[in-house]
């Protein structure tokens, strides 16, 4: 919530500064719906599919580990007390391995997702910057922190068109 308030305050200050100097020059200001651009960008969809596919592979590997653990527990039920205790040590080791696998898989997928999404955000920023320079915009704001904007100021569709070429 603080970041949002800070973002709104900064954008308000920037816009106020431009409007304060408006007597000297007309400023061209637009906005873009970054969430929409991000969601509808084809690279985002490709990245989600890649991560989803890798998640399915990890889930299949996890299922194999869980099945082994269940088999060991079923075998344990049929053993004598001494043998049960020995089998429990094996089961405890498998549980620890499963937990370690879960942690590593989650961290690995999260890192890959963050890397992919970071690259996507860089693509979006570059297109927005290039578009602003080509079309003479002085400012392009994120619509998320915008309280009001006219239809004419919304450049989301043009950004999406350029990104998905």
What does this structure look like?
This protein has 165 residues and is mainly alpha-helical. It has 5 helices and 2 strands. A two-stranded parallel sheet has the order 1-2. α2 (34-40) runs parallel beside α5 (156-163) and α3 packs antiparallel against α4 (81-135). The radius of gyration is 26 Å and the shape is rod-shaped.
State the order of secondary-structure elements, H for helix, E for strand: HEHHHEH
Low-confidence blocks of residues: none
Whole-number mean pLDDT? 86
Our count of helices gives 5
Structural class: mainly alpha
Topology:
Elements: H1 2-20, E1 29-32, H2 34-40, H3 42-77, H4 81-135, E2 139-142, H5 156-163
Parallel strand pairs: 1-2
Helix pairs in contact: 2-5, 3-4
Name some characteristics of this structure.
165 residues, two-stranded parallel ribbon, mainly alpha
Task: Sum this structure up briefly.
With 165 residues, the protein is mainly α.
């Amino acid at each position: 919530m603080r970041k949002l308030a800070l973002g709104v305050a900064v954008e308000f200050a920037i816009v106020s500064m431009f409007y304060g100097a408006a007597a000297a020059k007309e400023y061209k200001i637009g906005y873009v719906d970054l969430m929409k651009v991000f969601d509808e960008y084809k690279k985002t969809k490709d990245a989600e599919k890649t991560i989803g596919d890798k998640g399915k592979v990890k889930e299949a590997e996890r299922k194999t580990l869980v099945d082994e653990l269940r088999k060991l527990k079923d075998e344990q039920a049929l053993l004598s007390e001494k043998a049960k205790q020995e089998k429990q040590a094996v089961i405890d080791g498998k549980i620890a391995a499963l937990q370690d696998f879960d942690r590593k898989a989650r961290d690995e997928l999260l890192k890959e997702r963050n890397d992919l999404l970071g690259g996507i955000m860089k693509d979006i920023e570059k297109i927005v910057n290039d578009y602003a320079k080509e079309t003479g915009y002085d400012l392009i704001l994120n619509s998320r922190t915008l309280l009001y904007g006219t239809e004419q100021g919304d450049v989301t569709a043009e950004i999406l068109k350029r990104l998905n070429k």
